[in-house]
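Dear Dr. H.,

I hope your travels went smoothly. While you were away I took the liberty of generating a structure for the chain from your last submission, since the lab meeting agenda had it listed for discussion. I wanted you to have the full record in hand beforehand rather than looking at slides cold. The sequence, exactly as received, is reproduced here:
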Amino acid sequence: MTKQPRWLLRSSTLRLTGLLSLVFAVGMVIAIVLAMWFGRDAVLRRIDTTLLELAASVSDDDAPSGSSVLIRPLDELGGLPAPFTQIAARGGGTVTLEQDFRRSETWRVMIAEDDDDEPILIALPLDDSEDALDLLGGALWTTAAVVLVFVLAIGLGAGLLVQRRLVRINGTLHRLAAGDLQARTGVERSSDDLDDLARQLDTTAGELERLVAQTRHLSASLAHDLRTPLARLRARLEMLSEGAERNDALEEAARLSGIFDTIMRVARIEAKHGTDGFEPVDLATLAKELADTFGPVVEDSGKQLTVATDLAATVDADRKMLVQALANLIQNAIVHGGTDITLFASGRDIGVVDNGTGVDPALYDDIIKPMVQVDAARQSDGTGLGLALVRAVADRHGAELALSENTPQGLCVTLKFTEL
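The corresponding predicted structure, in token form, is as follows:
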């Protein structure tokens, strides 16, 4: 099934339109069937009354001249078709013949008394009445079909208009869920509840963006303000006598300084908007340059860094941010990966893969969140912010940060740039 039919089947407005049209169609069918049934019953009762009045005014088979009415004494039914005799035995009713009798196939038969109080059979052909009822039924069914098509067309049009507005709201929600806090529906009018919903969504998104920006600014400010006292603390620690405790304290201070620096870098990346600073970046060239820069560092750690490029594309990106993100991934692989680290660029993808113990796929969504550290997670500097910074860079470029298992073991982290 193609995407469009699936969308049509999942559309609540179109499904509601179909349901209401079905209810309308069923209602029309019931109304027409009842109208035909009651109409036929009224016609038969009118004919019965006419036959009774006519029977009371005639004697024997004295049928009115030129009339199609059939009048026979009950003891003279031998010349009539057999169904007449059978229906007469039941006291009358409607009889349908296999062949026309007096150019009529359907008859209304009654047993009544003539003006001499003698029982007689009196019958009247129903073909004209049946034709009239059939004509009426055809007119009703045709009218119902036209009205149903009209209702379906109007309902489908209205449903599509409503669906388009719902798609707009749903798209805004998807963009917000993906981290685009500037997403808005842009609805200004207030003509119905959907407009109110869209406007309320914009208001909520605006408030959410303000709160997130406020939180980021607060985090960056705290990190900035704490750097100075932390630097003084580190200077005092360096003045202490050599010893294990001094080294541990200096290492902890360095770690705290790294956390604050990362928080500020993430805040700066997330604070940027638009494409200011973007330039064409050849991913293959960037990978080779990074390998030249970080190769010696990787070798000093006892590991090996290789480069793999395959028809790598050129993307519009902030080169400094990409270097920062890939440096984090390389550092992450040095700390947590295996002995073989590969920096690859293929198509519009660039990333780092290693042959370490890898990460449980169930933890992929957690380890890219800020300040989240889980067992076996790979945070590049041990602060819980390394992959968060990479994700911020990916979001800044509208790219996807994808984590996957390496074969036979290890982790592959990829920045997937979308087509512009």
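Two observations you may find useful: The chain has a mean pLDDT of 83. The longest helix spans residues 127-177.

With kind regards,
E. W.
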